[in-house]
Amino acid sequence: MFIVQLSDRAVVLAGRYISIPVSDLQRAILNQAEKAIAGLITMSAGALGSITSLALNALIAFFVLFFLFRDGRSMLRRGAVVLPLKPDQVRRLVKCVKDTLNAIAYGTLAMAAIQGTLTTLAFWFLGLTSPVIWG
User: Fold this and answer.
1) Is the pLDDT score of 96 beyond 90?
2) Which of 3, 32, 33, 46 is the most buried (most CB within 10 A)?
3) Selection from 4, 20, 22, 2 nearest residue 12 by Cα
4) In sequence order, what DSSP letters do the residues of 15-65 get, joined into one string?
């Protein structure tokens, strides 16, 4: 109600200085308000969908991780039996996968450390306050 009164006052005030009929001004304001409200509804629906998707994905990830941590070794043994490979090939495959995952984890940590260090140096060089915190 307050917004309607405020828009009516604005239309009357603008009608004094602009040679546009008041009804056209009101119609234009209502059209823009409808567009803004439709945009807000669309944005909030998208945000709600994203939050729901994030929560569902997190729930699935925690569920899978629980069973992997609890029964991981027995699952690996059962999976090795199912694979159409010789036991030596399975051992090499598991070792390669383990080495690859370790390399990815350590590489990610190393890149994060390098990027943080370079960012700290750049902020220090530019004279920003607290470059260590920002880096």
Assistant:
1) yes
2) 33
3) 22
4) HHHS-S-HHHHHHHHHHHHHHHHHHHHHHHHHHHHHHHHHHHHHHHHHHHH
Structure token pair of residue 89? 């090939």
Residue 18 CA: distances (Å) to CA of 10, 11, 32, 90, 108: 12, 10, 18, 81, 61
pLDDT computed for residue 108 by the predictor: 98
Whether 11 and 22 have beta carbons less than 8 Å apart is answered as yes
Q: How many CB atoms lie within 10 A of CB 33?
A: 13
Look-up: residue for tokens 């234009």?
A: 28
Distance CA(20)–CA(61), nearest Å, equals: 59
**Tokens matching residue 118:** 């370079």
The DSSP call for residue 127 is: T
Residue with tokens 């009516």: 8
Mean pLDDT of 35-55: 92
